[in-house]
Amino acid sequence: MKSNILIIEDNEQNLYLVTFILEKYGYTVIPARNGQAGIDIAKENCPDLILLDIQLPIMNGYDVARELRKILGDAIPIIAITSYAMPGDREKALEAGCSDYITKPINPDTFMTNIEQYLSGPSSSGEKAA
Prior knowledge:
about 130 residues; alpha/beta; Rossmann fold; 5-stranded parallel sheet; 5 helices; 5 strands
């Protein structure tokens, strides 16, 4: 069974790149363009993993992570994907409820290795989907 991954990202190019990589590996992607939409979609679809931008319209990613943890608990991993890479930014994301933190720009060669540890989806064996 394919894993469903919710991507909460407002930047079209970042959303395209992450979606392209995930779909190449056989995952189903559910996009959300702002934090409130992401929360609503997460409640309706119960994804296997949430990839969360921090700098979002309407609600920032820290507030989104806190709200998702209140609603969904700790069962679903939330990975912050952000350009915030200053000292303390990683800790701030983890304190808000994120399970991990990946800085932008993402490295397509290592991206899947970074997130597959949180998934038991189609390519958890390390093989690419055809």
